[in-house]
Amino acid sequence: MFEIANLKAFRDLSADQKRHTTLLKEKKIILYAATLLDSENLEVVSLCLDILENFISNEDAHACLLSTFGVYEALEALSIKMRNKNEKLYQRSVEITDILRNSAPPAYNTRSRLKTGQSSRRQQLFSLFIEDLNKQSAVKLEKVLTKIRGIISFIINTEIKRCTVRICSKINVKEVIDKIFNKCCLKALVVTKNLQTGIEEFRDVSRISPSKSYLEYPEEIYSPKKTAISEKNLVQNSNSILKSVMNMWNDAFYW
After folding, report:
1. Class in CATH terms, 2-109+233-252
2. What is the mean pLDDT of residues 100-124?
3. Distances (CA, A) of 240 to 33, 79, 97, 246
4. For the segment 86-101, what is each residue's pLDDT rounded down to a tens digit?
5. Can you give the residue ranges of every domain in the chain?
6. pLDDT of the residue at 23
7. Is the Cα dihedral 140, 144, 145, 147 positive or negative?
8. CATH topology for 119-221?
């Protein structure tokens, strides 16, 4: 299985702390392991934790892991998922998450990479309800979203017909929704939630201003399952395993 072979190669590489600077230079690489924490294959999940534990053992790598959106969040999601399913994987994910949380500066928010006073450049999080979203349409949706400049990350959940997107200030949510409709023929509604009442509402941005801040979905209840990452088989066509890994990720990922 190529996926397991790739992870084993990455695990062996990350076991050497001297290689960490090179491996973490391209954040898409560590996101590969973080994304696969959502796999139903427990061997894959265990290998991903092996990789993350290798990096966690190096305190110099903590800042990079914390600043890479999707790593901490994927670990949190795994701990919730495994709480009543697999005690060993649950404990491992909790331990890594705790180490990262404790290594963060006091004022550091691992779920928000925003800087005070930079509201014009801030990121925004939106939850989209797509009634016709299913496994087939999700494949096309993912391809479209990875090509939209300004999307930082996204999560697709076909079970609840939701797509959560994080975007930068260069694009607004209406542009994203328009491209989804034009390319996928999928109608997307913005989901808003009142934190006090817990009530959700679906809003059509064609009828309201897309710049309204109340359209943003509360990050406090955001629990990602899949980010804007796609996978590609690692082809060992080089004498250097490290070079092969770097080439694979450079060609395969959009961030």
Report:
1. mainly alpha
2. 54
3. 20, 35, 32, 10
4. 999 999 999 998 898 8
5. 2-109+233-252, 119-221
6. 87
7. positive
8. Alpha-Beta Plaits (3.30.70)
Identify the pLDDT of residue 16: 93
Can you tell me the distance from the alpha carbon of 246 to that of 251, in angstroms, rounded to the nearest whole number? 9
- Rounded CA gap, 235 and 51, in Å? 20
| Closest of 66, 31, 73, 25 to residue 48, by C-alpha | 31
- Band of the pLDDT at 104, cuts 50, 70, 90? low
Beta-sheet strand order (sheet of 162-167): 151-157, 162-167, 124-130, 188-193, 200-203
For residue 96, give every residue at least 6 positions away whose Cβ sits within 8 Å of its Cβ, in sequence order, or none.
49, 52, 53, 56, 75
Sequential DSSP letters for the chain: -HHHHHHHHHHHHHTSGGGHHHHHHSHHHHHHHHHGGG-S-HHHHHHHHHHHHHHHT-GGGHHHHHHSTTHHHHHHHHHHHHTTT-HHHHHHHHHHHHHHHHHS-TT--TT----TT-GGG--EEEEEEETT--HHHHHHHHHHHHTSTTEEEEEEETTTTEEEEEE-TTS-HHHHHHHHHHHH---EEEEEE-TTT--EEEE-TTSS-TT-GGGSPPGGG---S--S----PPP--SS-HHHHHHHHHHHH---
Res 252: pLDDT? 43
Report the C-alpha gap between 6 and 248 in whole angstroms: 10
Place of tokens 């190529």: 2
Burial class from Cβ neighbours inside 10 Å (0-12, 13-18, 19+) for residue 101 reads middle
Model pLDDT for residues 212-249, shown as the tens digit of each residue: 555 666 554 444 444 343 333 333 333 344 555 555 44
